[in-house]
């Protein structure tokens, strides 16, 4: 089989989605499945929808276009990065909804929607401490009134994003502030908001803790569905599969090598002053394995080696392992778990083949 390849178990993605939907539904919170780490895969999107997601979302309009064509059951497709002015026509064509932060883009979306004779739904993002996208809490009411005045735009709700830029933890304080802002917007506009998007997978510890969710009724979940983890501690959440994605690479060399580098040391190929492969503290020899996998394929810190093996370093095209007690030969395959950064890069690499599998019958 072709290597390197990324094996995707769609049944586990479906099961993860279903588990989270069942956990959050009693709290009055819907799940919007985020496909950006899966490069907008229609197969992954369909698995999320089978698991009960209320809609799909992605940060790239190119991915949403793929979903629009390949996942017709997803009636709601949300662009979760603020639209670029240069792409507003494509946004209106491929996304039913977008997250927005400014009037200039909203005006352009309104014009594009008029040109296409469509209605485009808008969620206004509020900055609540993480210092990424969003207007200030003091400005959201006025922006909501302005949005209501655009002929082809529909104000669906407000939202926020935490834990991405600065690692701010979602908690009762910031989620309570978002709920209070909903009430202010509704009072000022005279409109009931249908979507209050509290954030991403980092919100799950808060959402499942028993805290009062207030007006929060939607979470945008990607990492938890795809990898079974939450971003705050990267811990596996109970009841979720953490192995829906596996990266498989092929052994191209096996040999006994000295444990540390020999000779005067300068920068490595990627500019490190301390060599990645080997350290001065290593002594003796070891059974080194080289795989046909490099930084053009995946992030070094996005890989988790099999038990008993140790990753020693990576260049553009080679991954070096200490194979420990394993006995590998050229042509053998090694399977790695991937973290979020590893998944994002591997699935986008032109050198990594993606294989999605689904059993004919899934019993849960």
TrEMBL record:
Domain (Alanine racemase N-terminal): residue spans on this chain: 8-225
Protein origin, superkingdom: Bacteria
InterPro entries: Ala_racemase, Ala_racemase_N, PLP-binding_barrel
Record CDD domains: PLPDE_III_AR_like_1
GO molecular function, one term: pyridoxal phosphate binding
A single Gene Ontology CC term: cytosol
Pfam families assigned: Ala_racemase_N (PF01168)
Keyword Zinc-finger appears in the UniProt entry: no
Cofactor(s) listed: pyridoxal 5'-phosphate
Keyword Isomerase found: yes
Keyword set, alphabetical order: Isomerase, Pyridoxal phosphate
Name by which UniProt lists this protein: Alanine/ornithine racemase family PLP-dependent enzyme
Provenance organism: Nocardioides cavernaquae
